[in-house]
Design a protein that fits this description.
By secondary structure, the chain is α/β, with parallel strands linked by helices. The chain has two domains: 2-26 and 34-92, Rossmann fold (3-Layer(aba) Sandwich); 105-246 and 274-297, NAD(P)-binding Rossmann-like Domain (Rossmann fold, 3-Layer(aba) Sandwich). The chain contains twelve helices and ten strands. The protein has helices spanning 7-27, 47-64, 78-87, 105-124, 143-152, 164-174, 226-233, 241-244, 247-256, 262-270, 272-286, 290-307, and strands at 2-3, 40-41, 70-71, 91-92, 133-137, 156-160, 177-178, 189-194, 211-214, 237-238. It has a six-stranded parallel sheet, with helices on both faces. Helix 5 links the parallel strand 5 and strand 6. The two termini are 26 Å apart. Bound molecules: nicotinamide-adenine-dinucleotide (NAD). Nicotinamide-adenine-dinucleotide is lined by residues 73-75, 104-105, 108, 137-143, 160-163, 166, 181, 195-198, 217-219, 245, 248.
Length: 312
């Protein structure tokens, strides 16, 4: 759920996000297809207006009769999904033994954390995060648990959020520093982790970036396809977003299939880092942005599923 200038902007974002979701499932080789819901609102809704919207969304999902299900993401809360689940069963909220309402954020953060270690290995020859600096843009459902994991691993973290008070409170708790959200592109760090909105890597911000690599959870971080080349030309290693942020999807996909053992979910999420290492290696060998290798891998998986008639 997000405020868009016009419904057309929301539709455009929905198409981009749905494509990203297809890529995400294919990148981790889970045959769920891909789709996305966008609630394009004129202002953030509260109270009965908000509840009514989620109830109406439930009816839309029922009309799709199981060909599509949705889970919690940007701008939505576990409370919203409790309401949604009263109207439809086509909602991914974790597994019954955990009383549903599982927050995907920590699972996504675990995948981002593993990928940051893979990126650190590529940059510095060791996955040790002690003394490495990471700037987290957006300390919400993903950014906050990620900050904690990085801190525990000895990284130096800097936080930023459009909600400065929130960033200050988390920074105080973790002993981190805070930079204003407009200063993110110019702030020197080893790794920038975009964990807020999409399209933050673009022709205006990339020339300003003062990081060595980018690895974060935000969907559609590149504003345009050319931005992958812009980052590559600047020598900034870019870990493709849909690979890095697949942790929550993996967890919910596994729970949906009854694979609920926490250890198995953890292992499958950590394995994203192995896929990323291959993608980074491929990019290096071919002298191109890792985005191309990741996209090629996705195309191969989709072609294989189409051939097998899996209906991806
Ligand atoms: P969230 O809404 O919980 O948190 C986003 C945070 O970013 C908020 O604290 C918000 O104040 C902040 N923010 C908004 N605009 C900002 C700006 N311009 N600069 C700095 N901070 C800003 O969302 P989330 O669930 O943490 O997701 C973060 C991103 O990761 C989104 O792009 C989402 O689509 C993506 N993602 C999330 C998950 C998940 O499991 N939640 C999974 C995959 C991808």
């Amino acid at each position: 759920m997000k405020v868009y200038p016009t419904p057309t902007d929301g539709l455009r974002d929905a198409l981009r996000l749905a494509r990203g979701m297809t890529h995400k499932w294919a990148a981790v080789d889970m045959d769920f297809g891909g789709g996305k819901t966008v609630l394009a609102v004129p202002k953030m809704l509260e109270g009965s207006e908000r509840e009514g919207l989620f109830r109406r969304l439930g009816h839309v999902l029922n009309a799709l009769n199981g060909s599509y299900g949705t889970g919690q993401d940007l701008g939505t809360t576990p409370e919203d999904f409790t309401i949604l689940a009263e109207e439809t069963k086509w909602v991914f909220m974790g597994d019954a033994s955990r009383n549903f309402n599982v927050d995907p954020g920590p699972y996504t953060a675990l995948g981002v954390f593993a990928c940051i270690k893979a990126v650190t290995t590529k940059l510095f020859g060791s996955e040790d995060l002690a003394g490495r600096s990471v700037l987290i843009q957006g300390v919400g459902g993903v950014g906050r648990p990620l900050a904690k994991m990085l801190k525990d691993a000895g990284a130096t973290i800097t936080l930023s959020d459009i909600d400065q008070q929130k960033a200050n409170a988390i920074a105080q708790e973790l002993g981190a520093t805070v930079v204003p959200h407009e200063a993110v592109p110019d702030t020197p760090c080893d790794i920038l982790a975009p964990c807020a909105l999409g399209a933050t890597l673009n022709k205006n911000t990339i020339p300003r970036l003062a990081c060595k690599a980018v690895a974060g959870s935000a969907n559609n971080q590149l504003e345009t396809a050319e931005d992958a080349d812009r980052l590559h030309q600047r020598g900034i290693l870019y870990a493709p977003d849909y690979v890095v942020n697949a942790g929550g999807a993996i967890a919910f996909g596994m729970m949906h299939r009854g694979q609920t053992a926490e250890e198995d979910i953890h292992d499958r999420i950590i394995a994203i880092a192995t896929s990323l290492e291959e993608i980074l290696e491929y990019g290096e060998q071919h002298g191109e942005s890792p985005v191309y290798g990741a996209n090629r891998k996705v195309e191969q998986v989709l072609a294989r599923h189409k051939q097998a008639g899996a209906g991806v």
